[in-house]
Design a protein that fits this description.
Strand content: 25-35%
Shape: elongated
Largest sheet: 9 strands, antiparallel
Length: 292
């Protein structure tokens, strides 16, 4: 029986799971495995039952069993030391696809407190793009401005909880995420004190591609990671919006050892891109209708 045409169903899935032995083994990290891909279910028209089930992973090319490429993909995830701080809120997103070297994510909107990074002059409008700024450039003063605002230096003198990650972008902005569970609109957030260069805004990130890396996020390394992300997207024919620039996400405090730091570079994908189905994926499946 041919697994094609009207007797087959194609579905897409994303799956995450914790590496169970890590719960009892004395290792300083908690591996989490993630896979995305497709499942094809083949039906026997005589009895309506599934007689074949085929899974594919987005992160590998060799889908045969036993695939050394698949084994390497699992091993790479198990030995990833990057950690996300416990107890800190972060923007909500879902992973639609996980390639070997990046993820495609869909973010819910969230509120941020934003200021300009060190050495970036305000143009009078927070929506006017600045010249290119490396997101890993000096931002200690900007971080301090946002931290003072967050921890009580606002008109209500209200202290809010720290969140993760800290965002910075190529337009020279640094952003703290405001607790998503408490604030979904800037109007509910304590206003900055007069004369303080902090702006509140609702951030609609939408669909992005994100590439993770560990270590210290120096300017040179961050640019190389961004270039690697762009190259991977072009390789996979995933259109992205270069005009909006890109951003850096840093999840950990300065006391976290470099191998355990979680950093990411992100770029917005084109508005007309379908993040669920790759170009030609559905067409190839429906074309099989005439090949039974």
């Amino acid at each position: 029986m041919c697994c094609a045409g009207p007797y087959a169903v194609l579905s897409r899935w994303t799956m995450t799971m914790d590496f169970t032995p890590a719960r009892v083994l004395p290792i300083p990290w908690k591996p989490r495995l993630m896979f995305s891909g497709t499942s094809t279910y083949c039906f026997n028209p005589a009895n309506g039952r599934i007689n074949k089930h085929i899974d594919t992973w987005d992160s590998i090319n060799n889908q045969e069993f036993f695939s050394v490429e698949a084994f390497a993909d699992v091993l790479r995830q198990m030995t990833d030391l990057a950690s996300t701080p416990d107890g800190l809120e972060q923007p909500q997103y879902r992973v639609i696809r996980r390639a070997a070297d990046y993820q495609i994510r869909s973010y819910d909107s969230f509120v941020v407190a934003q200021t300009f990074m060190d050495g970036v002059k305000a143009s009078g409008s927070t929506t006017e793009p600045a010249k290119f700024v490396n997101p890993a450039a000096n931002g200690s003063a900007a971080f301090g401005t946002l931290a003072r605002y967050l921890f009580g230096g606002n008109e209500r003198k209200e202290s809010m909880a720290m969140t993760t990650p800290v965002f910075s972008d190529t337009q020279g902005n640094m952003q703290f995420v405001i607790e998503p569970s408490k604030h979904q609109d800037p109007s509910t957030v304590p206003p900055p004190q007069p004369g303080v260069d902090v702006t509140l805004r609702k951030e609609s990130v939408g669909t992005v591609a994100a590439r993770a890396f560990t270590g210290l996020a120096f300017q040179g390394e961050v640019e190389e990671e961004a270039k690697a992300l762009f190259a991977a997207l072009r390789r996979d024919n995933v259109p992205f919006d270069e005009s909006s620039g890109w951003r850096l996400a840093r999840y950990n405090d300065p006391g976290t050892l470099p191998p355990f730091r979680r950093n990411e570079v992100m770029v917005k994908l084109a508005d007309n891109y379908d993040p669920v189905w790759a170009p030609g994926e559905v067409e190839a499946f429906t074309a099989s209708f005439g090949k039974q």
